Amino acid sequence: MEKLFKLKEHGTTVRTEILAGITTFLTMAYILAVNPSILSASGMDSTAVLLATCLASFVGTLCMAFMANLPFALSAGMGPNAFLAYTLCIGSGYSWKVALLAVFVEGIIFIILSLTPIRESIFDAIPMELKKAVSIGIGLFICFIGLQNAHIVVDGSTLVEFIDFSQNFNTQGITALLALAGIVIVAVLYIKKVPGSIFISIIAVWILGIICELTGLYVPNAEAGFSTLIPSFHMTDFSKLTETFGQCFNTNLDQVGIMNFIIIVFSFLFVDIFDTIGTLIGVTTKSGMLDENGRLPQIRPALLADAIATSAGAIFGTSTTTTFVESATGVEAGGRTGLTAFTTGILFLLSTLLAPIFIAIPTFATAPALVMVGFLMFTSVTDLKMTADNYCSAIPAYICIFSIPFFYSIAEGISLGVISYVLLNLLCGKAKNINPIMYVLSVLFILKYIFL
């Protein structure tokens, strides 16, 4: 372990890394239920998608572990999967096989770019103020995701509202109460510096949920999206994987047109590159992994691992596989090396055998962990200099922060932050502060809003 992951050099232990890897997995395990649900809308078999998601996560996360020695896990990204199913397949009528081929091609392009300094240069060119802003924005973003997963935040006349506990108490209401209890539990444990506090809170809330189900306080309603919390023990049908494996190569582009296909590839490419860079910036900034110049020494192998995972995932049969922001939970639990990622990857592989058990961990049990990690990432806001002589950096940072949760996209936060940073510094006579790459990025982002 020491030779592979240099644990002493990173000030960590095998126990801490394994616990962090388990924590990361539990906060990501919802994807095993959500991704099949989303991609099956495109006509794909849900069991095949589940297996593909597990295998792509395993391959990508192990690449991250051994190539970059970083504690980040990968899986099918939220956003690209919805884009594939609802925009491309349902909205535009394209086959899911065409969509997967586009994912495969953008992954190959990523691999090529990752072997060059291009993506690394983009990472380094973003000013430290925006890097900190991305970390803060992601904190708000994953907190928002946690509140939604717990049904504490619901849709309403003001777009988002606090839950009405008087309605659907035995499903939505009780799960929201359990999540609120979980937030208190994880906060108390963390304040008291209990090792593995995030992991303990997830298990505690799940156990409380099972007790509520056994006593009748929680009543499963599969049609409303509230499944039983008690795991079943049946095996997965592995033969289903043949329905998606390699099917991205079994398609005819004549039905799409080469120009349309290029646009699809570019759309996946844009979202993937800036979601990945944004996640790496946010998590590494908060965890202190950047050097004195704001650079991540292992950025190139990390980006290459992400690119390989994308193409591998398309072959298995899932949408863009990318670095997950929920990796922050493992980092906050003490994960600092690839052993954390290795542990998470092994759990994804094992979940192909015991998927029903892992899926039984409800999102309201992992929601408090996301809320707590959101708070921990948000604390970076005190590092931002908000004085009048620094407004050309502070205002773009502010725009970046609110854009990520409001627009539900890390990529949008980065693009609007970069554009506003370049414009404000230019208009205020501070062009010397702008890295040349930032000009290129701002132009590309503006063109993206015009043509995509």
Alpha-beta classification:
mainly alpha
Count up the helices.
Answer: 19
Helix content: 55-70%
Give the ordered list of helices and strands.
HHHHEHHHHEEHHHHEHHHHHHH
Query: What is the percentage of strand-forming residues?
Result: under 5%
Task: Quickly list its features.
452 residues, mainly alpha, two-stranded antiparallel ribbon, 65% helix
Question: Can you walk me through this structure?
Answer:
- With 452 residues, the protein is mainly alpha-helical.
- The chain is 65% helix and 3% strand.
- It is built from 19 helices and four strands.
- The chain has helices at residues 2-5, 14-28, 31-39, 46-68, 80-91, 96-114, 118-125, 128-149, 169-191, 197-215, 258-287, 299-316, 327-332, 338-350, 355-359, 363-378, 391-406, 410-427, 436-451; strands at residues 74-76, 153-156, 159-162, 321-323.
- The strands form two sheets. It has a two-stranded antiparallel sheet. A two-stranded antiparallel ribbon has the order 2-3.
- Helix 8 (128-149) packs antiparallel against helix 16 and helix 8 (128-149) runs antiparallel to helix 18.
- It is globular.
